[in-house]
What we know:
The complex is a heterotrimer of chains A (85), B (348) and C (368).
Chain A: E1 5-15, E2 18-24, E3 29-33, E4 45-49, E5 52-56, H1 59-70
Antiparallel strand pairs in A: 1-2, 1-4, 2-3, 4-5
Chain B: H1 28-42, H2 45-48, E1 62-70, E2 76-77, E3 80-81, H3 82-95, E4 100-111, H4 116-132, E5 136-145, E6 153-163, E7 179-182, H5 188-198, H6 214-223, E8 226-230, H7 236-248, E9 251-255, H8 263-272, E10 286-289, H9 294-302, E11 311-317, E12 324-327, E13 333-336
Helix pairs in contact in B: 1-4, 3-4, 6-9
Chain C: H1 10-23, E1 28-32, H2 35-44, E2 54-58, H3 63-66, H4 69-80, E3 84-88, H5 102-107, E4 111-114, H6 118-127, E5 132-139, H7 144-156, E6 162-169, H8 171-180, E7 188-192, H9 193-199, H10 207-211, E8 215-218, H11 222-238, E9 243-245, H12 257-266, E10 267-274, E11 278-287, H13 296-299, H14 315-319, H15 343-346, H16 351-357
Parallel strand pairs in C: 1-2, 1-7, 3-4, 3-5, 5-6, 7-8, 8-9
Antiparallel strand pairs in C: 6-11, 10-11
Amino acid sequence: MCLAIPGKIVELEEKSCMRMGRIDYGGITREACLEYIADPQIGEYVMVHVGFAISKVDAEEAARTYQYLAEMDQLEEIAAPEPEP
Amino acid sequence: MSTSFILSCPLPMTQHKTIVLGHGSGGRLTAQLVQDLFLPAFDNPALRKLDDQAVLNVAPGRIAVTTDSYVVTPLFFPGGDIGRLAVNGTVNDLAMSGARPLYLTAAFIIEEGLPLEDLRRVTQSMSEAAAEASVAVVTGDTKVVNRGCADRLFITTAGVGLVPDGISISASNARTGDVVIVSGPIGDHGITIWSTREGIDFAGGLKSDTAPLHALVETMIRAGDVHVLRDPTRGGLGTSLCEIAASSSMGIELDANAVPVREEVTAACEILGMDPMFVANEGRLVAMVAESSAERVLRAMRRLPHGRDACRIGRVVAEHAGMVLVKTEVGGSRILDVPFAEQLPRIC
Amino acid sequence: MKYVDEYRDRKMADKIVTEIHRTVTRPWAIMEVCGGQTHSIVKYGIDYLLPKEVELVHGPGCPVCVTPLEMIDRAHAIARRPDVIFCSFGDMLRVPGSNGDLFQVKAGGADVRIVYSPLDCLRIAVANPSRKVVFFAIGFETTAPANAMAVWQARAQGIRNFSALVSHVLVPPAIAGILEAPENRVQAFLGPGHVCAVMGYREYEPIAPRYRTPIVVTGFEPLDLLEGTLMAVRQLEQGRAEVENQYGRAVSPEGNLDAQRMIRRVFEVCDRGWRGIGVIPNSGYRLNDDFRDHDAERIFELGFIHAPEPPICISGQVLRGLKKPHDCPAFGCECTPQSPLGATMVSAEGACAAYYNYGRHLVTLPSQ
């Protein structure tokens, strides 16, 4: 389950007493409910599922793990698995 | 004292803002509609006669005939409307055989209550599209049904064209080594319709790709050896490729990274959980072209507005006959299979 | 698209695939729980990139396919009522009940509408005060916060003509159920990334050591699935059985506390039937008593609906990775995607449907 798409918050607004936002997915913007995001900021990325942001995208964590993947072939010797006894 | 009654309304309404049942009755209201709306839009010698049929001179040779119905909602959308779709769609069905489109018929089923202005806009649009495609609407029909019995407007067309000698283009003609070419980015029309229905604006102004492709086809045939042509409408590029593979009993290998999709269409499909390969187009073609002439055909296509973004997306192979195999974005392999019915947005 | 395109990068994928090939020394069976992950694996042909020792088993991760027949029949019965506007996510429209699917119910004159968000239903309810708007609230924990908000808002805004037919299912009990089965072959899990974005992954921490099964919380893009697989294979090769998080950019150990709070306010845990498996205790959510006025199950008293599963269907065993679709006598004959008998053929991501569409050609696909 669970189609959730990353998008950038480009606008914040209140609607029917709910914190809502306009989210830019790269070419298309749609409204999403931000009630489950603590302190949403314009420019931040969130994961949106059925019109609700369910988590922020942690940009630092993303950069860190992507960097790790990019350097994977250089880490071969260090990360060689120990065979099971 | 005797009184004679004249059983007709003393002041029949002749000015209408909306279509009423009478417009389909075949009586004076119908004639008025034809005179005031259809004739000026489609004016040509055959139509002017207003006979039950159009009698036309056709050069000797093979004729191509096609028929189609247009039931799109909403009637008007960025890039076009139901009328433009009807003309371009029929022209394209003919063009995919290499035929030169000549004549169209247009039958209208109108829901009682449709604003006359909407019908005027649609016919004006058809008139412009017909002129662009150099075709004539030579005969037509009008029916009006009760409110609720049609979704505003349905248009059914038939088209007639002439296939030049020596041309043999068919879905069953793909050959080993043929290059698969698409004329431009896919999914524009389907996503435009969806977003218009949902009230979503695209910053970049996404619109339907509806366009007549006969000039593009003529250029391609002059430039090289074209074996297969298809315009992937509903069902999308994916369905057309699967049909061609089955028809030709050949395999097709597709490079997922080579298939052009606009950024907005990708984003919309990601949100909906839909595959752009199966989203409708209205102004694109897919072709299978002999390898030796592929480069020439591509260059010729790119000189025309509707072929500007033409590119190679795969090739025809002898293996896995009848199947389309996709080399995915990450180098994996999957079989493209036609969905059971139209794609639905998913959350799962 | 940012945070999407870079996770579909071919060169990066090649690196991870090479590393998996380098790491694996013996056969392993890894189950991805989530239907969205299955979809991605099939769409990107990821199983064909992996060494033959690594077998990806498709799990019961499709709340659509595991919704019990009895609940589908209940939904159809409610939808057929003339005073009802029945709203559903697109996924549910082709799921067959005992008598056809929602499309057929719609063709019979019912007002059935596709929604993209549960909040759409509130707008429909406000616009149609004389009709009863019923929302088919299915899904894993991922969708629960959204569905909860719709019910909460309905009460807060006094939208009395809105109700939800709730059939949520929970992942940890399903995983435990799979691991409990004596014939279980699954040795590691790729955990459901978006479920964990909401719920965190603390619940999985006792499961991994208890069953000596690594659980790697994994995302949905090809690089996520490949990296998750690599992490699982490393654990297996090293004899570890821990919970690891591949999807750190969206998942934290505690998850989304605000979302969990709302879930607790509106729902309560209950036993749930899983189509093809049976009842798994404490594996679902239902609306709690506070929200009985918006509970379609209570509002529309339909009583007990008897909906027996076809006896020939083995989807329960397929869902748990115990049997393959080809093992079923009905596969491809009475049971096809057009006329599915059980959960695993119902949805395109179900193992039987995926095999039907792709697997029948397996022998001709290029091997790595």
